[in-house]
Structures are given as structure tokens and as C-alpha cells.
């Protein structure tokens, strides 16, 4: 089966600019997650969707981050405006419900804010 | 709260064994284990559920002590391909599969 697709693979922007990341999960996976992974740390959950509804966005900095999942398939994560501390890898993952089968992660987008 | 993993780093020779521990301060429903190679996405290894059995495949197995909220990952007769950073991910209920990932353990296997 096809894996979780993410784009772009790399992105360099200046602080205060905006950026968007795209994710296409595995077909049939109802649950989609966005994680932020800062170098040397474990992934930190930003937002969880089930179908096209938000299950958990308690860790999402809503003053600058937004995410949507239209039609319960693709998802977009946006940062506006970006700060230096947003430099990280943004990982998208999907799973069946419940996740007794584990998450499948995409290759991630490495964001550098300068 | 983030699960704590120990040790932080392990260096092995091929064929040696290692144990990686994951401890949580919360009662857990499940524990996942993932391996992440440098510059790549985490890859799912296995899941342990509350009330379930010790899991394993090939030379990698894991256990889950529900009373202590701890899980251990056992790597036996390590291979070069085992090198990477290992993360546990914990979930507190059946209804949500939201994972909180641990602090990570970096494993390096040398010939």
C-alpha cells in the first residue's frame, strides 16, 4: 500500500513569513496526526483529526498555527507568522481507529526559520 | 507528561544485547515502540496493550508492566541495522489513540 505522503520535503523561510505543509494519509485511515519534532527530541503532538473533525488540538499554538482536514482525507498545516523556534521537522501520521496497529508516519517536512 | 526513557544512549557491538526502558507517571492503556533512523520518519515496531502478552518479532521483543506503568524493549543479538533512536509512545485510554512520545534512546551498533 502507498505510504503517508508529505510535501514539501524541505522549506527555508524568514521569520514572520507564512508556510504550509500538506499531508495525504494512507487510504482508509480515519485518524490523522500532525507532530512537531525538534532536533534531538521525541515527536510532540500538535493536532489529531478523526475523519474531518478535530479530536485534540490542545498543544497547537493557535495564535500562529492552523490545520484543516477537508473531506476527511488530505490535511494542511499552516504557520503564520513563523518564529525561529518553529524550526523543526513536521511529521504527519495516520492510523486505523483504534490504533492497535500503530501509526504510519510520512517522511516529514524539515522547516528552517531564519 | 512525557514518558522517560533510559538509558539515553547505548553503544553495542554486533551480537550484543540491549534493554531500553520507558516509564510513565500515568496509568497506561497501551505502549508503542518506534525506531527512527537519522533523517527518516519513525517506523512502528510493536504495540503492547493493557492485559496483553509480551510481544516480539525476530530478535526484538517487549514487555509491559501495567502496575508500574513501565515498558521494556529487548534487542537480542543486535545487528548493524538496529542502529537508530528508539521512542516509546504511550496512550492512556482505548478511546483515544493519541500518543505521547518518550525522550528517546539512541542506539549505535558497531561491527
SSE blueprint and pairings:
The complex is a heterodimer of chains A (114) and B (111).
Chain A: E1 5-7, E2 10-13, E3 19-24, E4 31-37, E5 44-50, E6 53-56, E7 65-68, E8 75-79, E9 88-95, E10 104-105, E11 109-113
Parallel strand pairs in A: 2-11
Antiparallel strand pairs in A: 1-3, 3-8, 4-5, 4-9, 5-6, 7-8, 9-10, 9-11
Chain B: E1 4-6, E2 9-13, E3 18-23, E4 30-36, E5 43-49, E6 55-57, E7 60-65, E8 70-75, E9 84-91, E10 100-101, E11 105-110
Parallel strand pairs in B: 2-11
Antiparallel strand pairs in B: 1-3, 3-8, 4-5, 4-9, 6-7, 7-8, 9-10, 9-11
What attributes does this structure have?
A: 114 residues, seven-stranded mixed beta sheet, 0% helix, globular, B: 111 residues, mainly beta, five-stranded antiparallel beta sheet, 11 strands
Q: Greatest contact pair?
A: A-B, 26 and 26 residues
* Count of DSSP strands of chain B: 11
Biggest β-sheet description of chain A: 7 strands, mixed
Written as H for each helix and E for each strand, in order along the chain, the element string of chain B is: EEEEEEEEEEE
Q: Runs of chain A with pLDDT <50, length 5+?
A: none
Structural shape of chain A: globular
Share in β-strands of chain B: over 45%
What is the β-strand count of chain A? Answer: 11
How many strands, what sense, and barrel or not for the largest sheet of chain B?
6 strands, mixed
Number of helices of chain A: 0
Mean pLDDT of chain A: 93
N- to C-terminal distance of chain B: 37 Å
Structural class of chain B: mainly beta
Output the number of helix runs of chain B.
Answer: 0
Q: What is the average of the pLDDT values of chain B?
A: 90
- Gyration radius of chain B (Cα, Å) is 13 Å
Percentage of residues in strands of chain A? over 45%
Which outline of chain B best applies? globular
Order of H and E elements of chain A: EEEEEEEEEEE
Contiguous uncertain segments of 5+ residues of chain B: none
> For this entry, what is the oligomeric state of its chains?
heterodimer
Amino acid at each position: 500500500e502507498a505510504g503517508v505522503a508529505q510535501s514539501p520535503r524541505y522549506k527555508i523561510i524568514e521569520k514572520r513569513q507564512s508556510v504550509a505543509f500538506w499531508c495525504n494519509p494512507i487510504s482508509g485511515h480515519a485518524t490523522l496526526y500532525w507532530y512537531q519534532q525538534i532536533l534531538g527530541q521525541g515527536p510532540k503532538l500538535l493536532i489529531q483529526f478523526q475523519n474531518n473533525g478535530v479530536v485534540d488540538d490542545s498543544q497547537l499554538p493557535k495564535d500562529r498555527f492552523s490545520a484543516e482536514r477537508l473531506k476527511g482525507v488530505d490535511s494542511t498545516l499552516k504557520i503564520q507568522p513563523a518564529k525561529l523556534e518553529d524550526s523543526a521537522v513536521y511529521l504527519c501520521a495516520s492510523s486505523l481507529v483504534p490504533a492497535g496497529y500503530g501509526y504510519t508516519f510520512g517522511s516529514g517536512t524539515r522547516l528552517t526559520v531564519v | 507528561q512525557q514518558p522517560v526513557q533510559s538509558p539515553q544512549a547505548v553503544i553495542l557491538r554486533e551480537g550484543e544485547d540491549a534493554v531500553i526502558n520507558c516509564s510513565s507517571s500515568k496509568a497506561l492503556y497501551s505502549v508503542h515502540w518506534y525506531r527512527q533512523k537519522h533523517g527518516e520518519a519513525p517506523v512502528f515496531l510493536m504495540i503492547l496493550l493493557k492485559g496483553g502478552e509480551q510481544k516480539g518479532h525476530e530478535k526484538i521483543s517487549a514487555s509491559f508492566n501495567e502496575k508500574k506503568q513501565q515498558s521494556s524493549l529487548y534487542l537480542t543479538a543486535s545487528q548493524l541495522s538496529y542502529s537508530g533512536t528508539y521512542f516509546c509512545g504511550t496512550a492512556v485510554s482505548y478511546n483515544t489513540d493519541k500518543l505521547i512520545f518518550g525522550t528517546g534512546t539512541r542506539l549505535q551498533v558497531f561491527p
